[in-house]
Specification:
Helices cover 58% and strands 6% of the residues. With 385 residues, it is of the alpha/beta class.
Length: 385
Amino acid sequence: MSVYTELVGQDGVVEQLRRAAGSGTPAHAWLFTGPPGSGRSNAARAFAAALNCEQEEPAARGCGECRSCRLVAAESHPSVKLVSTENVTYKIDDVRELITTAQEKPQGARWRVIVVEDADRMTERATNVLLKAIEEPPPHTLWVLCAPSPADVLVTIRSRCRLVSLRIPPTEAVAQLLTSRDGLNEQQAQFAARVSQNHIGVARRLARDPEARRRREQVVTLPLRLTSSSAAIKAAGSLVEMTQADAASTAEARLESEQASLRRSLGLEAEAKIPPKLRSQFKKLEEENTRRAKRAVADSLDRALIDLTAVFRDVLSLKLGTGVELINEHLREELQRYAQSLSAEQTLAGLDAINAARTRITQNVPPLLAMEALMMQFLPGRSRA
């Protein structure tokens, strides 16, 4: 299977990367940008695979079948470093370690490729440490940074990178992928693609996980069920608890997987007692999992707010009579009734309130406080200006 499989609706980008990988002299630094769901991380990994693909005709096909492509897909290629952070920001020590790695010659490959996901999470100090390495990289090293937009990285970095801009794929393309690769029927695939707002990863999860669909339904119907201040406060608490439970479930599953993998690598049976000299390695996994928890909750809550944004976009579409299919088409009747209680101005103000809540979360405002303020804005008859 090609490493480009998930870059649906991005044919122009795929061709651009194939030409660059096959040129023999690709730019030494790249910046992949695009909104959540655009596939920027997949594109960066595909490019890393294509650069070292073992196929000769064409050299940059990124076949997905050769040993090099399989190693990149498994995140175990010795010359391709895939970096991400579960913390709020990258640490300077992490960046310094990357710079040291960049100096090493590739092992059994044409290029040493360092892919940095969420480059927008680098502080200014960390970015300045990285700057010199990008300005004067070794001849065998390529940097590939990922961020939502060019504005999310310092101008000194982006001015030294070749820009690759991605967009969110169309609904039909996402639905087709879910049908052909994941075995969903057409109705399931269309629903998942539409309500995920064309985010492939979210669409797959919604299609496969009934509990994820149930939680989403609870979120998107919140504004439709609020009738009093006490109900708004209760809804805020429920939303935060729901996102915390969602994040905790994901984190627990990941920790179990990492612990099982560590046991296998150390030759320990699943139920075997951990020897004292190895306990520090398992403790480190638990500490990393704890650090990931804060970001996991923030990310889960942000996803819920994106779903609420879709509700108010649908309401605005109904108010303006656009006639287009709603993101939450299955709730059309309920949304039509809700739209009758709002003016177009109030609907726009609701969108502004959601955006303000998303900003507050990134500024370390307690999630419950931010959600209580937001839910109060959704009360019937309340001015949202």
